[in-house]
Amino acid sequence: MTRQTFTFFFLSAFLFGVLLTAGCGGGGRPIPADMPPLFPSILTFTQEGEPLAEANILLHSDSKWSVGGMTNEKGEMKLVTNGYWDGAPEGTYKITVRKIVVVLNEETGDIIRQTDVIENQFKRENTTPLGITIGKGDNNQTFDVGKAVSINVRISD
Asked: Could you tell me if 70 and 51 are in contact, meaning their C-beta atoms sit under 8 angstroms apart?
């Protein structure tokens, strides 16, 4: 039996919107009247010194605006607010990271195994050591999510 491994993501509605419109500067949508100024930022994520590709990133704050994105093959992501607008409002954020790797049966396409490769501390707002303050100036930063782990994720029927 031949197996093909590729990365698979569990996306909330927010992240699905980010994937569809990231980098589109709003995708032609009007900016809400109450949206604060947004500050551009590119965040880079590594794991064991290597780029962390295709990881879901969320920034958490007390703001009503959702900020997040997905890393590219270089481990970089451009911050996007509410899934449409480039940049993030000024403020202090906690950063959570998730990445699921899926092993498929190449012949049938059935999922054989799902593995979470990020340590638990980075996946929860109340335990993540990652954080950033966004504001005027250079907001670009690099973050490391520690060693790769292999946590089996239950496959639901």
From this structure: no
Maximum alpha-carbon separation in the chain: 56
The rounded percent of the chain whose pLDDT value lies above 70 is 80
Q: What is the domain extent for residue 44?
A: 7-100+117-150
| 42 part of a folded domain | yes
How many domains are there within the chain?
Answer: 1
* CB proximity list for 66: less than 8 A, separation 6 or greater: 14, 58, 81, 82, 83
**Residue 70 domain-assigned?**
yes
pTM of the model: 0.76
Query: Tokens at residue 68, please?
Result: 């997040």
- Residue 143 structure tokens: 């973050």
Report for 9-18, 72-81, 107-116: range of highest mean pLDDT: 72-81
CATH number at residue 30: 2.60.40.1120
Is 53 within 8 Å of 75 (Cβ atoms)? yes
* Cα distance between residue 83 and residue 15, in whole Å: 7
Residue-level pLDDT at 156 = 61
Mark out the alpha helices in 53-126 (DSSP H runs).
Answer: none
pLDDT in tens, 77-115: 999 999 989 999 999 999 999 998 888 888 888 888 888
